[in-house]
């Protein structure tokens, strides 16, 4: 338990936190427009990992790829993961949530549908991919790039942090500067008035799910890089990311990013101090504490007003 | 070009519908996608060596063509022959309108005038419930006791929380686990010794009180939250209880589990060779619980729960102490689950942490929803049926897939019949109001707390 070890865990925490932040954005966006806790988002994340595996099985990387080849493989895998994630999220909205919106169903009904969909999706993935972990093909050699206070910073760490930051910056731009973004914010603020102003709510909701799915799928791929993908991998990161979204203030995109980073660090610190067994307890404990003392999260709640 | 013509052109572009945007073709696309999904769902199991295996097999298999064929048939029938179908439907509806609420309603009417017949029927049903299972073979008796009765009890408890008070509890099995582990603790089965060892029956009040307190402890800080936060916090609570049971090996026995003594009363030992005594004990538990809960449902407390569920703000402003009643529902539900936990530990005689995975919490939720939340007969039927169904389908469907079908069932139920198989009248009315969008429905649509809190 040296200080250097602690530093190592901190670095890991930031890397993990970046992933949580990207997943949390998916929860927060959907919550913003529909006031719905999209329970099945963790499955979108999981399918993203499988999308990467499928793509890289179809186009197997060579044994010792050159730099350019590695970049291509990673980009291809991530694109496939994001595409599958987006497809799942789109289908989910279309099949499960849209009919309920048309019925003007109570919130409880939405939530139960989300749980059912999550249950269905992850068992479907289990069926299609044999309920065991599938190794992600090696796309590059995971070497130490540089050393920071005796902690090796490896290629994977950099890959995750850079892609996550790029995605977050891109998303922030989309939400705050584009027409679609102002549509999303308008629907989040007041769906009825937004539709009177000419916003096509169905389209905006659908695209919000697609954006969340793209990010979630890419995060799923990054999660599986250099390790394995398994059909149950969505649940715990999903819950932790949701906790992150609540911590930052649900519906608030920047809050989700901040919350994700914080929770990643809290989680690895828990591992450092109490051991791996209690890893996921940290997220839940933080969630309960936040809800008790500051239910609107760190940065306040609504997408429309604050993002 | 003048401004006006430009505007007109823009408007024209907006109104123009490309061929694939027509509803007809979109429906075709949807049906074909559904066929593809069905082929995947019912297709072969994947292999570990090749992630593409299952997808390839399903895309080239016969199943896909059957589903695509059916999808095309449905589409053609709907697009080109919908008029006669609609007319037939209308006449059927007219014919139905002359009947009195279907067969069940007729039986009810018949019985309404004849109290003796009603009593006789009830006695017959009770006798069947008590002695009927003797005729089953051993396997089904075990299923009945170990699973059906236990989960009926759990589902009745969850119904209080979700069906009557309208709070979504995703961690209900946590209380079941607490009940089971209290039973193990007080009978001296755990590695840590209790102050005094008790009989399994004597444990029941202790376990129920423990769960009650656990329910209060969890509920007190969280019940002021909105519905979906509550759901996630209860889920977290479940996970914490599960991880504690799993990781604290010196206290709970962890994944390797502990052996619990079976029931024993006044020198009579319950033995695993004969399932019926266990069944009768559980039946008695269930009967007492149902009796108490029926009384509760129509009491002041039950009405307060309904008020809280339908519109929390209105309830609070008319003087209902919402937090108190929500806590009460939580605690009562938790203690029922704890009772089931004791029964489970004392029946099966062995518990480990893997008996209490999150999956079970979701399954119990599915039972309650399927049967019809808020309706006791519905919940009992839902739990019994959905526990029985996978056992029954064991030979026809790959047992590993059954949870997938259950998830699909939940979604389909929520879309087409959110009130459940045997709905409670009130719940049905609430959902209908939400759909037609009356003033009361407005409040219901935003759920417990909703936008206002």
Automatic annotation (TrEMBL), chain A:
<dbReference type="Pfam" id="PF02653">
    <property type="entry name" value="BPD_transp_2"/>
</dbReference>
<dbReference type="InterPro" id="IPR052157">
    <property type="entry name" value="BCAA_transport_permease"/>
</dbReference>
<feature type="transmembrane region" description="Helical">
    <location>
        <begin position="44"/>
        <end position="64"/>
    </location>
</feature>
<dbReference type="GO" id="GO:0015192">
    <property type="term" value="F:L-phenylalanine transmembrane transporter activity"/>
</dbReference>
<dbReference type="GO" id="GO:0005304">
    <property type="term" value="F:L-valine transmembrane transporter activity"/>
</dbReference>
<keyword id="KW-0812">Transmembrane</keyword>
<protein>
    <submittedName>
        <fullName>Branched-chain amino acid ABC transporter permease</fullName>
    </submittedName>
</protein>
<feature type="transmembrane region" description="Helical">
    <location>
        <begin position="280"/>
        <end position="300"/>
    </location>
</feature>
<dbReference type="GO" id="GO:0005886">
    <property type="term" value="C:plasma membrane"/>
</dbReference>
<keyword id="KW-0997">Cell inner membrane</keyword>
<keyword id="KW-1133">Transmembrane helix</keyword>
<feature type="transmembrane region" description="Helical">
    <location>
        <begin position="156"/>
        <end position="175"/>
    </location>
</feature>
<dbReference type="GO" id="GO:0042941">
    <property type="term" value="P:D-alanine transmembrane transport"/>
</dbReference>
<dbReference type="GO" id="GO:0015190">
    <property type="term" value="F:L-leucine transmembrane transporter activity"/>
</dbReference>
<dbReference type="GO" id="GO:0015188">
    <property type="term" value="F:L-isoleucine transmembrane transporter activity"/>
</dbReference>
<keyword id="KW-1003">Cell membrane</keyword>
<dbReference type="GO" id="GO:0015808">
    <property type="term" value="P:L-alanine transport"/>
</dbReference>
<dbReference type="InterPro" id="IPR001851">
    <property type="entry name" value="ABC_transp_permease"/>
</dbReference>
<feature type="transmembrane region" description="Helical">
    <location>
        <begin position="6"/>
        <end position="32"/>
    </location>
</feature>
<feature type="transmembrane region" description="Helical">
    <location>
        <begin position="229"/>
        <end position="248"/>
    </location>
</feature>
<keyword id="KW-0813">Transport</keyword>
<keyword id="KW-0472">Membrane</keyword>
From TrEMBL, chain B:
<feature type="transmembrane region" description="Helical">
    <location>
        <begin position="327"/>
        <end position="345"/>
    </location>
</feature>
<dbReference type="GO" id="GO:0015658">
    <property type="term" value="F:branched-chain amino acid transmembrane transporter activity"/>
</dbReference>
<feature type="transmembrane region" description="Helical">
    <location>
        <begin position="172"/>
        <end position="189"/>
    </location>
</feature>
<dbReference type="Pfam" id="PF02653">
    <property type="entry name" value="BPD_transp_2"/>
</dbReference>
<feature type="transmembrane region" description="Helical">
    <location>
        <begin position="357"/>
        <end position="389"/>
    </location>
</feature>
<dbReference type="GO" id="GO:0005886">
    <property type="term" value="C:plasma membrane"/>
</dbReference>
<feature type="transmembrane region" description="Helical">
    <location>
        <begin position="201"/>
        <end position="220"/>
    </location>
</feature>
<dbReference type="InterPro" id="IPR001851">
    <property type="entry name" value="ABC_transp_permease"/>
</dbReference>
<feature type="transmembrane region" description="Helical">
    <location>
        <begin position="62"/>
        <end position="81"/>
    </location>
</feature>
<feature type="transmembrane region" description="Helical">
    <location>
        <begin position="148"/>
        <end position="165"/>
    </location>
</feature>
<dbReference type="InterPro" id="IPR043428">
    <property type="entry name" value="LivM-like"/>
</dbReference>
<feature type="transmembrane region" description="Helical">
    <location>
        <begin position="117"/>
        <end position="136"/>
    </location>
</feature>
<keyword id="KW-0812">Transmembrane</keyword>
<feature type="compositionally biased region" description="Low complexity">
    <location>
        <begin position="434"/>
        <end position="446"/>
    </location>
</feature>
<feature type="transmembrane region" description="Helical">
    <location>
        <begin position="278"/>
        <end position="296"/>
    </location>
</feature>
<keyword id="KW-1003">Cell membrane</keyword>
<protein>
    <submittedName>
        <fullName>Branched-chain amino acid ABC transporter permease</fullName>
    </submittedName>
</protein>
<keyword id="KW-1133">Transmembrane helix</keyword>
<feature type="region of interest" description="Disordered">
    <location>
        <begin position="432"/>
        <end position="453"/>
    </location>
</feature>
<feature type="transmembrane region" description="Helical">
    <location>
        <begin position="404"/>
        <end position="422"/>
    </location>
</feature>
<keyword id="KW-0472">Membrane</keyword>
